[in-house]
Amino acid sequence: MRLSDCHNIEDFRRLAKARLPWPVFDYIDGAADDEITKARNTAAFDSVDLVPDVLAGVADIDTSCTIMGRKSALPLMLSPTALQRAFHRDGERAVAKAAEKFGVWFGISSLATHSIEEVAALTSGPKLFQLYVHKDKGLNASMIERCQASRFDALALTVDTIVSGKRERCLRSGFTTPPRFSASSLWSYATRPYWTLNYVFSPKFRLPNLDGHVQEGTGKAVSIQDYFNTMLDTGMDWDTAAKIRQDWGGTFCLKGVMSAADARRAVEIGADAIMISNHGGRQLDGSRSPFDQLSEIVDAVGGEIEIICDGGVRRGTHVLKSLCTGATAASGGRLYLYALAAAGQEGVERALVILRDEIERGMRLMGVTSVEQLTRERLRWR
To answer: What is the pTM of this model?
Structure first.
């Protein structure tokens, strides 16, 4: 299978699976416990149907919108994800360049493999930094200050990782950061020589946003589950979120909100946006999908705060259904990570071409010429 054979996100998933050692692929692809919530994140979009109009004169359409104060060419964001150089040697660099080329938001993680400063120097496009609140308060302050100095457009505080979900695929594979070769997975690494040689001969795997504060993930191999459970602040609360918003002083987003009550609290502390998200099904298995919760949250706080539906997006029609329900935009991580793993920047760009074409085609077939025309009147719930 080649990149030219990829015509949808599932095709990129298959190509990534063929090119990555299985512990690395399972880190991207896996989720918590029985992975019920991960599956529901995408399946939820099937519970509503689009109702198209015809003869609407759709020769010229506008797919752009404004998200958190920045113009975006599409109502789609590339969510922040960790450890990207484990999937392709270019990691966040490839994603940043592709996002800038297509005029869309992207984010980097606290656990990114390229630094805040390096990513900022690569692009003038809209960019977001995702903050994990560590027990080390100096580290939290350092990352915020570095983002301020590097002129990131927004800060997203992740609020759903008080403890790690049980990622059973990673427990079976022994996946760590940095990735390490174990006896059980050695054959998989040996039969993926392109990935293995790139990993071995590329610059040392690092998590540079942690520099000067913690060793984990840079010099010392650790699983993501152990990292979350030992390094992150389990005492984080609404006062913590309000203090971080104040310290940051710029556009502020809460990532991981899943209830209408929490959405209301986000409005009360002055957040500019929320990302309805369950961390890709990697935390609380058996929880609702973001799209399942979107309508309820829009009814509670729509018009008071921007609402981004994050997770499960695999098709342009998923983006359109999110907007019809009342979201400002949709976002996802796996939708571009599979493509990154499959073919680096070229893969991410091809994925964005496919999703852009699906959004444009879907709008024309629905008889709309701008995203503002995507309203609930165009949906029917089954």
So the answer is: 0.95
